[in-house]
Amino acid sequence: MTQQLFRTLFIKNMNATRYRRKMAEILFSRLWLDRIIGKDEQLEIYLSSINFAQNVNGVIQAIRYFYGNNHINLTKAQSFVLAERVAMIVSNELRPRIVVLLKELKELKNDNTLSEQDIKEVTTIYNNLIKQGKVKNNEKIIKEMKNI
């Protein structure tokens, strides 16, 4: 988590060579960041600064953007969508992680973390975000989500 925080706060050029970027993340996060900021503070800073969509930074702003409110008590489905959006910061598409997303949903359903109703809610949330233009449409993934 320390490396992710360091990357979020200090590395602007994500196109830099992966090796150089990783070395900077490891060295500075371990030798500097860990020494001045505790893990709880790091998590708080990370959740306040992580990018969820273009110009949408931090959990509170993401909740407002995706759900139109300031409610902190999210459903499991809403929480899942926010977690998935963090992984999609490159674009607003429901795209490259199709296989991973569907696999995660199936696993969460199989271990009873998400119910069938939760998965229906995830599908509804994505459909609403597509209608609002906040996520690009990918009919294949929506269709597959309905079959989980």
What's a quick, concise take on this entry?
The protein is mainly α and 148 residues long. It has helices at 2-10, 18-36, 39-49, 59-67, 76-86, 98-110, 116-131, 139-146; strands at 51-53, 56-57. Pfam families: Transgly.
Q: How would you portray this structure in words?
A:
This is Glycosyl transferase family 51 domain-containing protein. Residues 1-84 form the Glycosyl transferase family domain. Pfam families: Transgly. This protein has 148 residues and is mostly helical. It folds into two domains: 1-49, no CATH class; 60-147. Helices cover 65% and strands 3% of the residues. It has eight helices and two strands. It has helices at 2-10, 18-36, 39-49, 59-67, 76-86, 98-110, 116-131, 139-146; strands spanning 51-53, 56-57. A two-stranded antiparallel ribbon has the order 1-2. Helix 1 packs across helix 2 (18-36) and helix 1 crosses helix 3. The protein is elongated. The model is unreliable at 90-96 (pLDDT under 50).
Average pLDDT over all residues: 77
Describe the global form: elongated
H/I helix tally: 8
Please identify the oligomeric state.
Answer: single chain
Structural class: mainly alpha
Task: State the strand order across the main sheet.
Answer: 1-2
Percent in strands: under 5%
Strand elements, count: 2
Order of helices and strands: HHHEEHHHHH
Structural domains: how many: 2
Protein name: Glycosyl transferase family 51 domain-containing protein
Domain Glycosyl transferase family: 1-84
Pfam family, one: Transgly
Organism: Helicobacter saguini
